[in-house]
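Service request form, structural biology core

Requester: graduate student, group of Dr. S.
Request type: structure prediction, single chain
Budget code: on file
Notes: please return the result as structure tokens.

Sequence provided:
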Amino acid sequence: MSRLKVGVIGAGAWGKNHVRTLAGMADVELSAVCDANEKTRARLAQQYPDTLITDQPAELLKRVDAVVIAAPAPAHASLALQAIAARIPALVEKPFALSVADAEAMAEAAATQGVPLLVGHLLVHHPIIELLRNKLTDGSLGTPYYLYSQRVNLGQVRPDENALWSLGPHDVSIALHLLGQTPTHVAAHGHAYLQPGIEDVVFLVMTFASGVIAHAQLSWLDPHKERKLTVVGSRQMAVFDDMAPREKLRIYDKGVDRKEAFVSAVESLTLREGDISIPRIPGGEPLPIELAHFVRVARGASPERTDAQDGVRVVRVLEAASRSLAAGGTPMTVGRGA
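Core staff response, request fulfilled:
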């Protein structure tokens, strides 16, 4: 089988990781890279002398079989529509788009043209997230009660998107993937400390029809670097600490057991303190797994996850959360679309 010719539009802070990973894949030819920054293009030309380096997306699309769009978020929709019009399968980095209208237009165009379109919800491809989803599906954790995450750091401050749109797609996509459902309502509180109108910190609450609540703390203005997810079920509780050098996932056999015969609230509820287990996690980093999945889809396989509709669902949540932010935290209904 010949190597798939893949291009990358946007080789900045995250896009460069796509470039590096694709260049090292045996079944891929890094055919072209597009970036608006002249210094970035000069660096790329030295690193990848056999790859077309350009500042013109249209020129790149003529040279590739598939494209990763990792340009700044405001350009995602227009670049995706260009790729679809050229019948080039595309992986669009998060956030998929900056409005539900754009996200739906992208998904509709891809479906009409029959062009594969995926979204870069990276952590949905993480082996630990897949293991947690399996444990929720097979009942190992019991009935999910709630989950919460922290994604904070003293990190890159973005001028074109707030912490909700920059960091939130990770935690929203994880919650929707783990629970297999979309929230009915969201509420978001936040504040802009460094730049007017661009919130540096956001506290997001998602409420699901099943009764599950998911909370995400998002900030690039924090003394700690934390990437942590806690899932609390009726049988067990799980903590995924992505910053831990080893033993990133711990399963706690803790909970509250109910007696069959009700006497009183206190007498009918018994705390259970069991063992802590550290599961063996299958190897593999999420970015190579995500890109290998994209290559399979670009060659004709059906997407296993993170398709265009997944992108639309997450943008619906983010847009509703933005309305809540603007309204001082008032809960907002998440639209279902057509």
